[in-house]
Amino acid sequence: ERVSLWGGRFAGGPDRALAALSKSTHFDWRLAPHDIAGSRAHAKVLYAAHLLSEEELSGMLAGLDRLEADVRSGAFAPDEDDEDVHTALERGLIERVGPELGGRLRAGRSRNDQVATLFRMYLREHARVLASLVSDVVEALVQQADRHLGVAMPGRTHLQHAQPVLLSHHLLAHAWTLLRDVDRLRDWDVRSDASPYGSGALAGSSLGLDPEAVAADLGFSRAVENSIDGTASRDFVAEFAFVCAMTAVDISRIAEEVVLWATKEFSFVTLDDAYSTGSSIMPQKKNPDVAELARGKAGRLVGDLAGLLTTLKALPLAYNRDLQEDKEPVFDAVDTLELLLPAFSGMVATLSFNTDRLESLAPQGFALATDIAEWLVRQHVPFRVAHEVAGACVRLCEERGVELWDLTDADFAAVSEHLGPDVRSVLSVQGSLASRDAVGGTAPVRVREQLAAARERLAAA
Ligand code: ARG
Q1: Residues 83, 88, 89: CA angle, nearest 5 degrees
Q2: What is the pTM of this model?
Q3: Which CATH number fits domain 13-107: 3.55.10.10, 1.10.275.10, 3.40.50.150, 3.10.129.10?
Q4: Residue with the nearest Cα to atom 12 of ligand 1?
Q5: Which CATH architecture has domain 364-427?
Q6: Best residue among 109, 119, 319, 326 to mutate for probing ligand 1, ranked by most atoms within 8 Å of CB
Q7: What positions does the domain Argininosuccinate lyase C-terminal occupy (predicted)?
Q8: Cβ-based neighbours of 65, under 8 Å, separated by 6 or more
Q9: Per-residue pLDDT of the chain (461 residues; tens, 9 = 90+)
């Protein structure tokens, strides 16, 4: 006969509607391997505290091994009456080692400290996977930057032509952003590297069990300092969800550029066939679906974070059942990113840049006007005046429908006495780029250094 984990004080079983509401196996079953690892570690501290004999310990561990194999093969799965992953696995253990032995494992632990620990284990594992998938996108950006060193493009602010920059500089800007997301995952891991196992329901255990031993067994470097905090806090989940959302938002900014760049009007890039899609009606279409899905899924990840924070807001200590709602949003965030990132890095790696077009558009839209102003500043003209003078050059060009470099020496002299013929030296893309040579600037010499630094960071990531 089936006994629930908590039926003792109840005369009857739960109503079917409650049981249906309460159930979480359809999403928490993915924690089963971690639950079993936790059970192994817990069995060992029960033995160390003389609450299991040596024989009982080996029986328990053998039962857990069989259970794990059956979970892996699918021979054991949660059934209708199992409330959550912990309930199902206790049933599975009891089916394998009998109620006498199987019924001893639960001593000194609660699903509250279990789930808090297993969730950390799961997220730590996926933090590593995600860090590596984000690094793959960085790698693709770095390779493209390397391949196109020296190619100029129109740098934009407000989406308007601003100043010429190197394509590599632009691509590396995205790389540095994503490297910080990788850093965030690592920082998060350091903070989350503490095991709540042994916190019990909220107050700790009276059975002489060693939380540090369990922590070490489960790959944590320490146990939590406070059992209430251990069972009730979910900032580790929210922070993880934030890093996922931030990463998706950062990816969406690249995605939006790819969508624009692939239009007829921009024609900056051509997407590889393997990373573009067609239309069921318009035979000519080649659509940037990978980038669009990336852009779209960012909204979903922001929603996951917002939903989670809303669940956590104003929850009193310690454990509340609301906390069961912490898993689905973050599982969704993990699944979504693990699906998206490989496609995204493939798309970036195979982008083909129309470098002639990028180069020819780089100086358009009077993008060298700042160079005139800064040239004047180097002649000791106050910037306020220099800005006015360069602006007047632009106005003159607009009136005549020409570019800055089409102005004659006489035109320049007529605009301002300060504008000698030498100003022409900065009216080229190469001159403009080369002049921005301070640390972090777009000068080729700096971008080459930057590329090497990004590679180094990537290797260390
Ligand atoms: N399934 C729950 C969760 O995910 C853990 C169970 C705790 N239940 C309880 N009644 N204390 O948070």
Answers
A1: 145
A2: 0.95
A3: 1.10.275.10
A4: 324
A5: Orthogonal Bundle (1.10)
A6: 319
A7: 366-433
A8: none
A9: 565 778 888 888 889 999 999 999 999 999 999 999 999 999 999 999 999 999 999 999 999 999 999 999 999 999 999 999 999 999 999 999 999 999 999 999 999 999 999 999 999 999 999 999 999 999 999 999 999 999 999 999 999 999 999 999 999 999 999 999 999 999 999 999 999 999 999 999 999 999 999 999 999 999 999 999 999 999 999 999 999 999 999 999 999 999 999 999 999 999 999 999 988 888 888 899 999 999 999 999 999 999 999 999 999 999 999 999 999 999 999 999 999 999 999 999 999 999 999 999 999 999 999 999 999 999 999 999 999 999 999 999 999 999 999 999 999 999 999 999 999 988 999 999 999 999 999 999 999 999 999 999 999 98
Q: Is 416 a catalytic residue?
A: no
Top mutation candidate among 111, 123, 325, 328 for ligand 1, by most atoms within 8 Å of CB: 111
Question: What separation in Å is there between the alpha carbon of 111 and the centre of ligand 1?
Answer: 6
CA distance 245 to 129: 16
ipTM: 0.96
Residues 364, 276: Cα–Cα separation, whole Å: 30
CA distance 407 to 420: 12
Does the annotation count 158 as an active-site position?
yes
